[in-house]
Every structure is written in structure tokens, then in C-alpha cells.
Specification:
Blueprint (H helix, E strand, L loop, with lengths): L4 E6 L6 H17 L4 E3 L10 H7 L10 H14 L10 E10 L4 E9 L5 E6 L5 E4 L3 E4 L19 H9 L19 H13 L11 E3 L5 E4 L5 E6 H7 L3
Parallel strand pairs: 1-2, 2-3
Antiparallel strand pairs: 1-10, 3-4, 4-5, 6-7, 8-9
Amino acid sequence: MIQLKVGVCQILVTENKEENLLSARSAVKKASENGATFVVLPECFNCPYGTQYFCDYAETIDMSTPGKSISALSAMAKEASKLILVVESKFGFLGSIPEVEESTGKYYNTCTVWNTSGELVAVHRKVHLYDVDVPNKAKFKESDVLSPGNKLTTFETRKFPEMAMIAARQGCVAMIYPGAFNTRTYPLHWEMLLRASPAQNLSATYDAWGHSMIVGPDGTVVCRSEFEETTVYAEIGKFSKQFRL
């Protein structure tokens, strides 16, 4: 049975990319020092969450010519490996940034996964883009700027449980959803959505809601944060032994 201590980092994001990367580095370093073997950064952690920002902050996901965020993520992974005593294949971390694909000119909300050698081991482009228009409350359309990906899984995908069901049948022990959830449309929905998927399967101009959570296979909230910058932790293996998908 896989044993992981997951650290979910919640950081304050500003319009200064360098400051955001330093905040992310500090959060990853602290989580690693506290024994986390898998660290999760927020959705679009390197820039304010808004369609007016995505193009200016976007980078290519190319290790041959890495941008600031990609270089920083690789360095964070290497630094973390010096702080914890784990087998390399059992450590990793991920975070989402705006991506531009130079060959097509398309933009994506892209999550990258790294190992302790600083190697990029997986890339996911957000599939279900967030479009909402609530009169007098919120209007936001990711699709005005971003294109959808075709693989698993960031933020809006939590609303589509079929993907989690398929992953569970293939032996997946945890689903990770980085999300920049807003304060206008989803204070009531956030916890419900996070708890519903595991329960079903038994296993600025934009104000982020925060409230990062780690949820057990039965929908129980194991740990949660509030609005402040912080990191929450949980040991995944303990819950995998108690429940079977």
C-alpha cells in the first residue's frame, strides 16, 4: 500500500511573478521540512487569477528553454529532495500555471508534476474551463482566453465524477484538484464538491476562497485551512487501509 504525506499549500498571489515564485518556494521548502512527500501548489499560483492576466504571465512548458516558473519549479523539486529522506519515486509535487503553446498560439491552464531530480514527469491541461455569469455577482469566462485540454484533472473537473471513477478502477488512490475558487459563487459549493466525489466512489478583481482541504475516501474532511497562507497535511496511506474503492 502506498504511503504518502501530502502537503497542500495555500499562498497569497500578487501581480509580481517573482514574488509569487518566492512564496511558492518557501511553501514547498516548509512542507518538505515537515515531512511532506507530495506537495501541492495552487491553481495558477504564479499570477493573479483573471483572464486579463493569463496571456501576460503564460510560459511555454519546454525544458529545453524553460521560463521563470518552469525553472523555479524544477529547482524547488531538487531543493526538496535534500530536505526529506524518501525514495525518489515516492516524492513529487505539482502546481498549475498559464501555458502558451507557441506552435498554435493557444493558451492553457496547465498543471505540471515534478520528481526530486527536478524532472518534469507529467503535464495536464485543464479540461473543463470555468465559465460563469451570475447577475450582479460574478461574470468570468476562462474560455475567452484559454483552450481546453484533453486529460485529467484541474478544478472544474471535480464536477465531473466519471473521470475519478475511471481512475479509481485503474488503481488510483487519490485525486488532486488545484483550484482558485472564488468567494462569490462557491462558498457553499466548495466543500460539497470536494466531499461528493470521494463519497460517490468510496474512496483583487478576483477573490480566492482559499479553504484548501484533504478529504478521505468516505467524504470526511481530514483537514482544512481558512483564508490565510498556510499548508495542511494528511497521511494518505492511513485512509487507503481503512477503505476499499
